[in-house]
Amino acid sequence: MKFTRRDVIRTTAGAAAGMLGGQFVGSPAFAQEALKYKPEDGAKLRLLRWSPFVQGDEDQWLKNTKRFTEMTGVEVRVDKESWEDIRPKAAVAANVGSGPDLMFVWFDDPHQYPDKLLDVTELGDYLGKKYGGWYDGPKQYATREGKFIGLPLATIGNAIVYRESWVKEAGFSEFPKDTAGFLELCKALKAKGHPAGFTHGHGVGDGNNYAHWLLWSHGGQMVDEQGKVTINSPETLKAIQYAQELYKTFIPGTESWLDVNNNRAFLAGEVSVIANGISVYNTAKVNKDNDPKLTEIAKDMRTTNMPIGPVGKSVELFQVTTAVIFNYTPYPNAAKAYLQFMFEDPQMSDWITSSACYCCQTLKSFANNPVWKADPNNAAYAKASETLRPNGYAGPLGYASAATMADYVLVDMFAKAVTGQAAPQEAMEEAEKRANRYYRV
After folding, report:
1. Which of 203, 375, 398, 408 is the most buried (most CB within 10 A)?
2. Which of 85, 89, 140 is nearest to 111 (CA)?
3. How far apart are CA 336 and CA 356, in angstroms?
4. Chain centroid to CA 406: how far?
5. For residue 309, what are the contacts with CB-CB under 8 A and spacing of at least 6?
6. Domain residue limits at 294
7. What is the model's pTM?
8. Can you give the pLDDT at residue 41?
9. What's the rounded Cα separation, in Å, for the pair 261 and 253?
10. Residues 44 and 115 in one domain
11. What CA–CA distance (Å, rounded) separates 182 from 201?
């Protein structure tokens, strides 16, 4: 979608209403003179972002983009791709030096092609100073050697989503807080005809989130502090054995699930427990078609954080998305001005509100957004940026961690073991071999 001055003139009233419609109505309207960068004459931008799971996210982003066009005259075309297609398209654009000016990319992907990205350190430092600082986890994904190679845009939280009535039917008065109790609950749910479902497929978010939680909750890690591959360990073996038992309680086919599948299965009433963003709850709550079954599901849905394993503390991977500018853009000032505008208040406040807790703030000052307390089910997602553990743990983020993630090394290890394609030891050894292709210490 592209915005021009003519488009904005037609919708002036709507844009003005959008300025006043956010939660933070006391914030002053952002003025052009506040921009740190003057867009180049005739500048036009193209942004490629991931397809939304919460429509309010996209709607507000487009409204904010209209505000930017109205203020600067810079046309911005916003395209979108599926989650799985973002990573390869970003890599191609970086390597060939052609494509969108800006992209929303995943996890530590910017570390795969840092020399292809525009240095936005000045802007990153400015925003951090103005809005209470960046959360450390998201900042790690967007910085390299002390420089911002992108701006951490949001953390998409992940939490347990379950049917409360079915959990009680299975004999549990509350959701278990540890992995041992969680396994017993899933066994009881399966016995009642309400299987669980966790993604063992190449879901950029759900597959990776689940696999890393399995590993870390049992004390395993892909690499140590020096970046030496340590996946072949007793702790990993325990994680795999636990995953094998949990998999027996799943609905068939989770090894091929992508990010959309657990949402669909849950809303269809096929599974009782999943790990997902707030999007699945919002879909049921909004219920555009007034489906009575969906209304019933929404009332019965509850959320909580992932159970704690033998390590004795919460250790979770959450999906971070970073806004990057490719250094081949002919309009670097316009691109930086656009990102500045979108990160400033009230634009960022409005976007977080409209995203309905799907996109967690990366700048600390936005944590007081009332949306986090608007619904009890939102609480499990409120501190995603604050508590996440980066996927490269325990080593540094860089090309190796990004490539290992992109190659689904950890996801495949668990999938092969739980489906019987490989024995646990064989699965660990294969993961070790694959990871060592990237980690050469």
Report:
1. 203
2. 140
3. 26
4. 15
5. 178, 179, 216, 217, 218, 219, 242, 315
6. 159-317+407-436
7. 0.90
8. 97
9. 10
10. yes
11. 21
